[in-house]
Design brief:
The complex is a heterodimer of chains A (160) and B (480). Chain A has a single domain, classed as 3-Layer(aba) Sandwich (Rossmann fold). Chain A is built from 4 helices and 5 strands. A 5-stranded mixed sheet of chain A has the order 2-1-3-5-4. Chain A is globular. The termini of chain A are close together. In chain A, 54% of the residues are buried. Helix content of chain B is 40%, strand content 19%. The chains are: A alpha/beta (160), B alpha+beta (480). At the A-B interface, strand 3 and helix 3 of A face helix 1, helix 4, helix 5 and helix 6 of B.
């Protein structure tokens, strides 16, 4: 078993509704990462982000939010995410930047956050399957994520 | 009224509720509000999607309807599937585990709504600047309260995880029972925090009660109207959020029907379809489509029940009912107070259940003679939730009919929005910030959940569009 660099604690939250076509890209990449069982990498998956994710985020050094996107670059975009502190909440769910904002305000979080958006195309179908293009994007996003975690944080898969 | 005499004000989607909701206000020739319509995204696609699937998959599949109340769908579907497998009464362990799951859901949902959606309105006043009237504003000015909200939500979520197996896509409830009991370790971990949860629940109830009582004269007319109320009720008249029979009362408290077996709901409730909406509009059959609509949820449940069977919540219920001299409370903003009484009731129920040794029992599932139709009802956090299924010889779903809480409140939303809009738009067809705020506050009182919509990044701005009587856009605002 190999530890991540400097014992950095990493959290990836994949969110979206797997029954709404490409909306399930976030949970899908979370599942892939979970299967790798990387030490110091925690994986969470949910339909939507909610306020208690802020408490969980605050327990980690790096937080990656993985979601499907209707408008991101193809095949995916991976960018640092700044906390949002002047927000107008749209729903019971909260945006990733709002989660980080709450984590900082309520739990003194110093976590560095990233937004990982995987481009999807069809969110209207009530089916548990991806469009062909979304599948390709997911594979490319997954290759990138593995490389990012390995190079930046020396994360390695545990051989089971 | 012909189209040429109307103007349409469209507000979409309403902020701080689930998914995509939009409001249309129809104005008459004098620019007075003629009609309000709150449009909600419907999920009939789901009712088709589930056809052909084996019945035992349903309690898991239906959770994908909603990211906010998956447990309610899980349990309502499981109750319907109990009927399919011929089970009318679960083992004590199975029923109590399901109840614990349900009260955990109720607790976390009510806490989330109160602290993170409603408390900004109550703490800052709903006339306050929206820039501070939100949870970040609460976090800055009342950080302890904001943390309490997060931790109460987490407590409820952990109960769901312990009873359903995991926070999402739980598999705990299965046709005829449950697939796990509660270990001593799990129980003790919850009991360790129970006093704190009691204290925070009492404190939240006090905020809601004090706000309502202190602002009663202002709140009485706000978005309010007389209505009928509907909920499940226990055989002795007690509030029961997990199981019971149907009771409906009118705005004066007179019973329209009582102790109705919910499997016969189609004899009492009719679902009307309207051409302008994908939503169904349920009404009480014997009252008729015009006046037969009703409200569900915490306010309705407080109004329909004779008593609450936990001491602190019962004491709070008596105080609540005293405000309207024992008659039904039709003040829309009183939903918040009612919701906090249920929050306290839920933690009292959770405490009772955690101290019940049946939760460590091992008799989890029973089976009976297969049936081809099953109905399951539950009082979800937002109100009565109906699940109805039919299966064929191959155990596949052939029919699914769902009436969700938000659908039951359809007409009530319209009435509340119309009341608020009529107070703001009077001769000037313009969407003001004040109007937007008040519509949000009114709708939020019901805690509607429209999350069958997808949420992908970049899809949820607040868009306000104003049309003239010829359908031309004369004003449009977008709020990210």
């Amino acid at each position: 078993m190999v530890s991540a660099a400097k014992n950095i604690k990493i959290l990836l939250i994949g969110f979206g509704n797997p029954s709404r076509g490409d909306d399930g890209l976030g949970p899908a990449i979370a599942e892939k990462l979970e299967n790798e069982k990387m030490p110091n990498v925690t994986v969470d998956s949910d339909y939507q982000l909610t306020v208690e994710d802020s408490e969980n985020a605050a327990k980690h050094d790096i937080v990656i939010f993985a979601d499907a996107s209707v408008s991101s670059e193809e095949p995916f975009s991976f960018k640092p995410l700044a906390a949002k502190n002047t927000v107008s909440f749209t729903s019971h769910s909260v945006e990733p930047a709002e989660v980080i904002g709450l984590a900082e305000k309520l739990f003194n979080s110093k976590a560095k956050a990233y937004m990982f958006e995987i481009r999807g195309y069809d969110f209207e179908m009530f089916e548990e399957k991806f469009t062909d293009k979304a599948k390709e994007n997911l594979e490319k996003a997954w290759e990138f994520l593995k490389e990012f975690l390995t190079k930046e944080f020396q994360c390695k898969t545990v051989n089971m | 009224m012909s189209n040429s005499q109307t103007k349409r004000v469209v507000i979409e989607p309403v902020t701080r509720v689930e998914g995509h909701g939009k409001v249309s206000l129809l104005l008459d020739e004098n620019n007075k509000v003629k009609q309000a319509r709150f449009h909600v995204v419907e999920f009939r696609g789901f009712e088709r999607f589930i056809q052909g699937r084996p019945y035992w998959e349903v309690p898991v599949l239906v959770q994908r309807l909603c990211g906010i109340c998956p447990v309610s769908h899980h349990l309502a579907a499981a109750k319907a599937m109990d009927k399919i497998v011929g089970v009318d009464k679960l083992t004590p362990t199975a029923e109590k585990m399901r109840r614990l799951m349900h009260y955990g859901q109720m607790f976390q949902s009510h806490a989330l709504h109160f602290f993170h959606l409603c408390s900004p309105d109550l703490l800052f006043g709903f006339e306050a600047d929206p820039a501070i009237r939100n949870i970040i504003g609460v976090a800055v000015k009342y950080p302890d309260l904001a943390v309490q909200g997060v931790m109460m939500r987490k407590f409820g979520q952990e109960i769901i995880k312990a009873t359903a197996g995991k926070k999402i896509h739980g598999t705990g409830a299965i046709p005829g029972g449950i697939n796990k009991n509660l270990s001593i370790e799990e129980r003790d971990a919850f009991l360790k925090d129970i006093k704190q949860m009691y204290d925070w629940s009492k404190s939240a109830l006090k905020i809601a009660k004090d706000y309502t009582v202190q602002n009663l004269e202002k709140l009485k007319p706000f978005a309010s109207f007389d209505s009928s109320h509907l909920s499940l009720i226990r055989e002795d008249g007690a509030m029961d959020l997990y199981h019971g029979n149907l009771r409906a009362i009118d705005s004066t408290g007179k019973k329209i029907f009582d102790q109705v077996d919910y499997s016969k709901y189609l004899d009492y409730i009719v679902e009307e379809v309207k051409p302008w909406s994908y939503m169904k509009f349920p009404f009480i059959k014997q009252v008729g489509p015009k006046d037969g609509w009703y409200r569900v949820g915490p306010l309705a449940r407080l109004n329909t029940c004779d008593f609450i069977d936990t001491p602190l919540a019962e004491e709070a219920r008596k105080e609540f009912m005293a405000v309207t001299n024992g008659k039904p409370n039709n003040i829309t903003m009183a939903y918040h107070w009612a919701r906090m009484i249920e929050l306290l009731h839920s933690i009292e129920k959770i405490n009772d259940l955690l101290n019940d040794k049946d939760l460590q029992g091992t008799d989890l599932v029973i089976k009976g003679q297969k049936r081809y139709e099953g109905v399951g009802l539950i009082e979800a956090p937002r109100g009565t939730l109906f699940h109805h299924y039919k299966i064929n010889e191959n155990d596949q779903i052939t029919m699914a009919n769902l009436i969700v809480s938000t659908t039951n409140n359809n007409e009530a939303f319209n009435r509340s929005v119309q009341k608020v809009a009529a107070d703001h738009i009077d001769g000037v067809p313009k969407i003001t910030e004040g109007l937007l705020n008040h519509i949000e506050v009114a709708i939020r009182a019901y805690d509607p959940c429209l999350s069958c919509a997808t949420h992908a990044m970049g899809k949820m701005p607040l868009k306000v569009t104003l049309y003239d009587y010829q359908g031309n856009i004369v004003d449009s605002k977008t709020k990210e």
